[in-house]
Amino acid sequence: MDNTVVIEDIKKMCCVLPVGADTADESPPASLMASNQSKGPSTMCPAWKPLLLIVPLHLGINQINPVYIEAFKECFKMPQSLGALGGKPNNAYYFIGFLGDELIFLDPHTTQTFVDTEESEIVDDQTFHCLQSPQQMSILNLDPSVALGFFYKEEKDFDNWCSLVQKEILKENLRMFELVQKHPSHDSIPTALGL
């Protein structure tokens, strides 16, 4: 669904069954998913597959709508944030933070030499550093089509992010995206077998 993160779907994809369980269906048992909703430590998944979540957004028509600016900046403050992809017409950037109403970005088009870390014990870390300094641009110059990136190494990271989103992002009437527990009943998702 557009601009919607469904908690149940993420938990099903990232929750790994214990060793020895039936692996024909990789999603966790329904009883585990139902008990997971209570948020207690005893209801956590047995194991969690790390997740990189990209949330594509459209925050205006021709330019970014100023009502989204504070919520957009709040996303950078979250410990799970990996930044945002976006830019302005004909320029794509990787945004890593902000300073006031200026976004700090790197140019993702700079290529680096490949380093094979398994080939030798000594690794030249020069390729892991940016040769160009980070740059700034006004947040009002941002193209409205952006994608936020988040990483959850463990289930508690995802649960913490959900709490932060509820507290900091969804408090506004004009929301950048939705965070829902389950798919709405009117939402039918076709499967490969049920088309």
UniProtKB/TrEMBL annotation:
Any one Gene Ontology BP term: aggrephagy
PANTHER family: CYSTEINE PROTEASE ATG4, CYSTEINE PROTEASE ATG4A
EC number assigned by the record: 3.4.22.-
Gene Ontology CC terms, in alphabetical order: cytoplasm
Pfam families, sorted: Peptidase_C54
Subcellular compartments: Cytoplasm
A single MF term (Gene Ontology): protein-phosphatidylethanolamide deconjugating activity
Alphabetized UniProt keyword annotations: Autophagy, Cytoplasm, Hydrolase, Lipid metabolism, Protease, Protein transport, Thiol protease, Transport, Ubl conjugation pathway
Taxonomic path: Eukaryota, Metazoa, Chordata, Craniata, Vertebrata
Source organism (scientific name): Myodes glareolus (Bank vole)
Record-stated family: Belongs to the peptidase C54 family.
Role noted for this protein: Cysteine protease that plays a key role in autophagy by mediating both proteolytic activation and delipidation of ATG8 family proteins.
InterPro entries attached to this UniProt entry: Papain-like_cys_pep_sf (IPR038765), Peptidase_C54 (IPR005078), Peptidase_C54_cat (IPR046792)
Residues annotated as domain Peptidase C54 catalytic: 4-163
Catalytic activity, reaction form: [protein]-C-terminal L-amino acid-glycyl-phosphatidylethanolamide + H2O = [protein]-C-terminal L-amino acid-glycine + a 1,2-diacyl-sn-glycero-3-phosphoethanolamine
Protein name: Cysteine protease
Principal localisation: cytoplasm
